[in-house]
């Protein structure tokens, strides 16, 4: 595996390998000294063209725990704001000796472009591109759900066979939903997508998922987990629903809907959460909520991805 660009073409064996290695990385995070020397001498550039808090900090923590040298690049205030192209930025990174690039970009396909052109010959990790994919978010979601299903001690080597995951909200603009649809399905889970008609893609016939507009009907179908998505207002140029009150009424995980669920149903959210809109505080702050587990697990999963993409290059350098 040279790059990690999407989950759509990730094989089950490779996905389980990444999750199993993340189990080892999570053990490192529990130690007093949270560091491994495996990427010592490796330079990783975090190339963020979009604002990010959780993903950028999570990648940076993962890189430092593997002893990599880290360069953070934000488009704001850089030469990008003066018109520099992705190609010129990539060639600059090659010139300064970057060994890997973690990229978040508002345009779908930008990481793929960087991986396929000869502007820079390093592993590329997609940290979210437009409305396309966010593979490490999907992996950390699967990692978290696997722990809920099998327990931390029994999770190694397992998939998500038999699980039913209901993903609710702004599916249309969500790269998290797209990556999860493919990865959860590859790992054996059944996926149901729920949202207003305007926030579901027009054609999902090729997706391994069922779609519905009725949240209550989906919640009655014995879900293992309910994953709420943020309304991505920054990607909307028109009104996609009449008002937030109507959205919360029909598609929000209200306190009443939450209490009607079984006590074993996991409540997931990639963050940041809009409380009172897509999720109630009763659900977000409950013991069933995995929101903070997802954040913590993100570091271990990104350590795993960096390790598998970069450990070979370090052995070659040695």
UniProtKB/TrEMBL annotation:
Residue ranges occupied by any Aspartate/ornithine carbamoyltransferase carbamoyl-P binding domain in the UniProt entry: 2-146
Span of domain Aspartate/ornithine carbamoyltransferase Asp/Orn-binding: 162-308
Single GO cellular component term: cytosol
GO biological process, one term: 'de novo' UMP biosynthetic process
Gene3D superfamilies: Aspartate/ornithine carbamoyltransferase
Positions annotated to bind carbamoyl phosphate: 54-55, 104, 134, 137, 271-272
Domain of life of the organism encoding this protein: Bacteria
Keyword flag Ribosomal protein: no
This protein's UniProt keywords: Pyrimidine biosynthesis, Transferase
GO MF terms held by the record: amino acid binding; aspartate carbamoyltransferase activity
Pathway: Pyrimidine metabolism; UMP biosynthesis via de novo pathway; (S)-dihydroorotate from bicarbonate: step 2/3
Recorded coiled-coil stretches: none
Enzyme Commission code(s) on record: 2.1.3.2
Binding residues annotated for L-aspartate, in chain numbering: 82, 175, 230
Function statement: Catalyzes the condensation of carbamoyl phosphate and aspartate to form carbamoyl aspartate and inorganic phosphate, the committed step in the de novo pyrimidine nucleotide biosynthesis pathway.
Subunit structure of this chain's protein: Heterododecamer (2C3:3R2) of six catalytic PyrB chains organized as two trimers (C3), and six regulatory PyrI chains organized as three dimers (R2).
Similarity annotation: Belongs to the aspartate/ornithine carbamoyltransferase superfamily. ATCase family.
Annotated protein name in UniProt: Aspartate carbamoyltransferase
Record organism: Pseudoclavibacter endophyticus
